[in-house]
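Example 3.2
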Amino acid sequence: MAKFITLIIFVAVIQGMGALIGMSFTPGQWYEDLAKPFFNPPSYLFGIVWPVLYLLVAIAGWRVFSSEGDMPGWGLWVSQMLLNFSWSPVFFYWHQIFWAMWILIVVLVLSLSFMATNWHRDRIAAFCFVPYVAWLGFAFVLNFSIWIMN
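Structure, written as tokens:
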């Protein structure tokens, strides 16, 4: 029962932080005025994708946190999560397209490292990061394209 409660806490905190950041740092007129590539998704898609990704990321973090013995990848999970949450303020509030792109690169490296670290110990935790890493890759290409175009 304690593990289930810990899972609920993980999911609630990650979803809550994601929602809070998403509502606090909205794209706004500045983003609307930017030149964007043809593959820029409609804004409503982000509100669908991120909660699903955050659910998977929370499950992965919970699995590593709850593992018996050492916690492989825990530092990687926490680090990538903190940087993930920093992207929206850097991009949407401070309008730092270039630095936001670098944040995505670091989050990608940390996330791939998390997957590699947990591949043999907890493959479910590693697999939970697959859609997340794919979306981060797409987000990097989108961020890079917006930087180049503007």
